[in-house]
Amino acid sequence: MSRDTPIHSWPGSYYINSEKRWENGTLSITRTTVRFVSNQTKQSLVSFRLSCIVEIKMESSSFIYSTLTVLEEDHVKHWFGSLKPNRVVVFNVMEHFWRELLLQPSSGARGAEPQPSKGRELIGLVSGAQRRLEDTGRVLSHQGEQFDNMMQGLEKIDSDLGVADKLLLELESPPWWPFGKLPWKTQQEAKAEDAARAATSAAASASRESGRNKVISSIPAVVSKGGDSDLKPGCLLVLVSALEVRDTNCQLIHRFERNEVDEIRVTSPYEISVRQRFIGKPDICYRFLSAKMLEALSVLEIQYKKKIEFTSEFTAFQATPLSSPCGREGTSYSDGLLQMCQDTELPLEVPAGELSQLQVHVLRSSVSQAEAQELKQMLMQLKALALEAETELERQDEALDVLSSSTDRATMHIDKHTCRMKRLL
């Protein structure tokens, strides 16, 4: 994955201060750099790192011309105008990636933290735990299917007991009663049974909803519904059973239930779109740009295996393929790990004379950035699997409670019907 591949680009113009004129071209942003390329000469007029930015503002030139200004550390100010679709969209995207870069830990802080040794062994242990958790999830899913079959069997038994009750009522009715049953005799019993069923179902649904709304991952993002003209800051929440789009005040904009998501298109390690298709009306599609998109992708790839699609544009961001610790084939979120590590501004080489032998040993034995990122993504997947397993266990606990109460009710009805048949004999 090349760090020079643009995450997003916009047509616009740049003010050349030395020549006192505007030049048309394309403004683009990569993971670490902002660049403006002229349409006429095809050369870069200006290029600077995101980490050198001090301030991004929306201003006016000559009190009329709306522009976007970027101030660097050396008090160098860059003016961008005629941005399409509009300067607000460019401001939102650029500010998001700039702020996320500022929030990353500095190289000094990272160097001061003690790093665990043998990173690959840690990755092997985590991948083994992930495989075992996936096997446990499959066993739980099979067990849940068995519970569902038992519930269906009990529903059949309950239906047969209802038929038997009607037949017994006809046999118990006196010969002078022409309608074959006495409605007042079982009215209170029916009401009590309906109330018990309603209470059980309400408690089960409340518990189920609490498990379904657990948050697996939450990332800040620039959100758009469809096109490029309305990119606004917000966040993407990945829940156990849904995806939620929220604004900067955490107000819900839209919620995709898990079965409503028809397609997730991955354009780059920083951009995805989620679509729900309809027949006879427009589809619902939301687009997300985020510097932390890889954290969400590691979870989405597990939850929506058959619905996630990596586009041809994604290949522009790929470098040497990274082997997945779980043996997964094909394109996956791990292709973006190398870029995340390359984009951090840590020194790649340190002169050997400046380090003691002990420091060299510590650096060699510490976990590399690539390993740390890989471990982070795997732990996110473990969290998603664990929450799904927890939700399935809660559902099975509820099913066991319903099975127990249904079995007791069926046993009571059978005993009652047996006594009534004995009286008839």
Automatic annotation (TrEMBL):
CC per GO annotation: plasma membrane; presynapse; SNARE complex
Keywords: Coiled coil, Repeat
Segments forming a coiled coil: 372-399
Keyword presence, Phosphoprotein: no
SUPFAM superfamilies referenced in this protein's UniProt entry, alphabetically: SNARE fusion complex (SSF58038)
Family the UniProt entry places it in: Belongs to the SVAP1 family.
Keyword Repeat in record: yes
Name of this chain's protein: Synaptosomal-associated protein 47
Signal peptide: none
Record-level Gene Ontology MF annotations: SNAP receptor activity; syntaxin binding
Matching PANTHER family: SYNAPTOSOMAL ASSOCIATED PROTEIN (PTHR19305), SYNAPTOSOMAL-ASSOCIATED PROTEIN 47 (PTHR19305:SF1)
